[in-house]
Input
Amino acid sequence: MQFPTLIAREVLNRRIAELAVEVGTAFPDRPPCLVTVLEGARRFADELCRRLPGKPGYHSICASSYGPGTVSFGKVELLAPDELPVRNRLVLLIEDIVDTGHTAQRLYSHLEDMGAEEIRLITLLSKPSRREVDVKLDWVGFEIPNEFVIGFGMDVDGKYRELDHVAVYKERNAMVEGS
Ligand code: PRP
Output
């Protein structure tokens, strides 16, 4: 099934390269501990980190707030390894999308509880119109409208993560009616 493209592969490439330059020069004396929020941010994190000086690796936290389909549970489930080396560190959280902001807010407070000294957040996408809590975003790849997006790591029911671009998810019926 074809979904309308929101952000094409070349546009993603260019923006991620720009972000890598900004992030790569932001912490000259203090290499951050990189923490990627799985599952959705893996693709963005891989592409960002391979463009950063020294091609650093990252640690992972699993966070999930969406149930089946496109509806958020509104409750963030976190699975964070106890050995995450964030104590007294500068942490760079890598997200694919900040929507309501609940996941990011939960992650900030969890990392603070684990002893992180300072936390910065980079997200590929932000949907400001959906924000329910105020969260600090240090780098945003793209602000997008209130559409459910898939591809480039993002899914609906585990599907479409492998798309090379960001697309707008439409239910099959809506696609037929709209075509
Ligand atoms: C997505 C995304 C963010 C979160 C943002 O994760 O990766 O972590 O939703 O939503 P919020 O700002 O409304 O909290 P999801 O729950 O879909 O899990 P996944 O990354 O494993 O697909």
Q: What stands out?
A: The chain has a mean pLDDT of 91. The chain is about 25% helix and 30% strand.
